[in-house]
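Q: Structure tokens for this one, please.
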Amino acid sequence: MIKKEMIAMLLAGGQGSRLGVLTAKVAKPAVAFGGKYRIIDFPLSNCINSGIDTVGVLTQYQPLRLNTHIGIGIPWDLDRNIGGVSILPPYEKSTNSEWYTGTANAIYQNLEYMSTFNPDYVLILSGDHIYKMDYEVMLDYHKESKADITIAAMPVPIEEASRFGVVITDDDGKITEFEEKPEVPRSNLASMGIYIFSWPVLKEALIKLSEQPSCDFGKHIIPYCHEKGSRIFAYEYTGYWKDVGTLSSYWEANMELIDIIPEFNLYEEFWKIYTNSDIIPPQYISEQSVIERSIIGDGAEVYGEIHNSVVGSGVTIGKGSIVRDSIIMKDVTIGQGCVIDKSIIAESVEIGDSVTLGIGADVPNKEKPHIYAGGLVTIGENSVIPSCVQIGKNTAVSGITVKEDYPGGVLESGETLIKAGEQ
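A: Here is the predicted structure, written as tokens:
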């Protein structure tokens, strides 16, 4: 019989609706990050760096890009005969077909997968955070505490604590109370959505609560175990951790990579971040180009200027074009004489000549002010922007747009231009 001490279950089905047009056609964990990675590379690399060689990746929303990216797990050394990486989509059962309806429901539907490894411990992760963490150290803490459940928690500023699930602990780190997004938080220890369960405890709770509609860890499983008297401990984490759930936090996390001494270092030898890289030629930088404090992916061709930006692989930036404070994902073509300011341009976008992005006043977006904010211009993948147009701040564009879509050649700040058939 197979026996694994700890297996990981990585929840990667999220739609990431707060990323707007960036996730219209792709699951949030598959969104590009840092010029060559995808968000899911970080928890996957953490697993292999922590010595965990069995990972179930639970997918649901728009899984194609994610499935193709992970493949059989070769880049992460997860192509194993026993264990390795397995993609676990929802599937047809003989009686009915069920989508995953909550984080715990997704895990419950894969009880059989977990049982085949007869694990002592199960690590539950979400696929949409940027961080480095040694899960082995967390497991040691779990064992030392004789815990049934260990929750990774990190201190956050008390004024931000109401955005999180907050844990209250005694002097030994044992959790005495939980508060889900409290209005007046009594602690600043926020749950990171990373859990280690002793397998019997997890199994019993999942089976017991399997009838619970949209069963969730934070809302149902952990309170249930707490009431039953399970020993639940907080493992305090103080390293870099970023939830890139909004366009502003996604933009900030990318920009932090190019700080002189980045808070989050992609270049550490002992904790590599692995990814599935395309085999492409080296970058080409022409003699008239200027590049300052930026990350430039392989296969990029630069004929203009790039300042303080993250540029993915296969990007072309035309003569006389200036890119500042922006994220340009792979295979984007920017024509000549463009000015791109504080923009997020998704994969395979075509931008004509003499286009200006990020002009005008910082006016709130009319349709989705909570999503398209921070003065950013966001362009969805495979979009086309015609030559000689100007686009304001807090805007979103998706689809193949033409001159006629821009009255007077301008998309004003706060406007949204999404072509029929796009989301």
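A few notes: The radius of gyration is 23 Å. Residues 217-227 form the longest helix (11 residues).
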